[in-house]
Amino acid sequence: MTAPYDEDTTPHDTELESKVLGLMLLGNRDLVIEARRALPNDWCYEPRHQRLWHVITRLDDQGHAADLYALARQAADDQSDLAPEDLLHATRCYENAPLPAQLDYYVKQAAKVSRLRAADEATAKMQRAIRSANLDALDQAAAQAREALDRLDGHSHVDDDDWAPVDLEAAIEGGDDVDPPNVLKRADGLCLLYPGRVHSVAGEPGAGKSFMALVGTAQCLLESRTVIYIDYEDSAKGIVSRLLKLGVPADAIRQHLKYHRPIRGVDSPAKALLRAEHDQLLPALVVIDGVTEAMMSQGLETQGDPNHQVATFYDLLPRYIARLQGEHDAGPAVLMIDHVAKDKEGRGRWAIGGQHKLAGLDGAMYMFEVVKPFDRGQEGRALVRVSKDRPNQVGAAGKVVAELVLDERTDQLKWELAVPEDMPEGADGQPRPTILMESVSRYLATNPGATKNQICANVTGKKMMTLRAVDCLVQEGYVSETQRGRCSTYANLGHFRREWDRGSQ
After folding, report:
1. Helices 47-61 and 84-95, packing angle to 10 deg
2. pLDDT tens for residues 155-170?
3. What pTM value is reported for the model?
């Protein structure tokens, strides 16, 4: 945008107008509808841009999308004011159009320039009225100026600019704490997905990555937490049938699962729908199943050197969702399901399509390694290995943090996100579940005198592992055990905090 303006310059930016019009001519009526919501009808400074805009809006009023062919037909059929040079300029606008995902930015900038121009014109009228001593004209111009300035003020706060400095007070008060992971629980209570962050699971076909997402979905639904599932690969029947086999009641699915099976790319109406749905439901988890297909629907490539296109997709969908306010201020956990390259030697630590699929994540990425294939009527196993954990609360890169177990030997699918066998051991040689030990310690700090049954009922985790955590705390002197009648009660002697040495987890 050309700014600031000198005293003799009316606020305008013809290059910005060309970009907005180029987006309008891509043949996507949704883009026109979104622009018309934000722009006044006389927003263009350059006359030929205003003529093009009038024809585009006329096509939209008739229910048609705008493109170069439709523009030419209008010029020929209805004797519009479009001249041959206008059509030539429209072609240049079309050829230089930015990505559709950038519509919101360019429209907002164009609206700001238009409002600045309206305020400039109103103040010029006030000056002329003052010089002519025309009080009626001055009152009218002053009212027009106030309206223009109110519109400008309502849409141009510096707080709306993502380049504005961030208020650090909340971060200072919160210290170094990062919102801990709260979705996709392992058997000992450790969660693998962080709220308000983007994650990815990747593996070869049949490695269990979709089931990993469904396990997280099932856990949320069973806890009455909402999940939004955006599916580019399967069907509603396929997803629901597997959730039912995982033991999720039909009523929980009806009440807390919102399923989408999109075909077109992420456009402004789709983002508006997701935002409205999100604001109403405040989901804990949003799953994006089929990253390659999602990118293809957007016209983005995953071959060659596609890192910039991966970044574009991340901003379009997963990051957009993660930045919305979820169950808590941090927003929902976003989990993408992706594939790995066929070349095992050259695939690296990221999914197919570019290193930015790893670098662009602010949550964690997990790779799947099949131990025992997931076949019908059999028990399957896959190791879940950390490829990246930016907040560093789950495990270091390369660390196996869980084992996905699916047993289909009965009608009811049995599943577990098990703790890997290399869990630290206590003095007695038995597993030392440090995650659950900290959770139990925290619970007893506010609930002294609780029994084992009460602890198991209030601490998330498998009952057997929770009981083991209580025993370890007693053995190590963090918790006291008092016999009361037929049962024992427990109280905290000193708060247990697990070691943050990721190699010991």
Report:
1. 80
2. 444 444 556 677 777 6
3. 0.56
